[in-house]
Amino acid sequence: MIEPDDGKGVDIWLRATDHTEPALWLARREAGGAAVSERDPAVERIRAALLSARAHFLETDRMLANRTAQLGIMLAADGHAENFAQLIGSLVDVAAAAGQRQTYGELCQHYYNLRHSGVERDAALQMLALRYRTQRQFR
Known about the structure:
This protein is mostly helical. It has one domain. It is built from 6 helices and no strands. The longest helix is centred in the middle third of the chain and has 17 residues.
């Protein structure tokens, strides 16, 4: 069973019934539950990243935030903590290479698998961009 929060006052998942803006929720997750205002620069960066992601992924902002938090936790557990706004932006770049909308959760899993196997960040993103770019051939 999923705990209602992470012990730091931030819900594990942003539920469909929650009224918290996804960018604010994700910034609070990244800050470990610390108080973060709606105008905090971290919120603004995540908000911009989520906005750019809309054109490239099938999921809603809420699901993008949930998957980013999940991926962030998994990467941090491997010793590869990443900035959430940068992470979203990097995966947007990969999806853009494909030239069509992608499933964010699937791309997160591919990225995590590469990182978990020891591939460095830039190399993993290059590998994914090359792999996703081949989708253009089959449209």
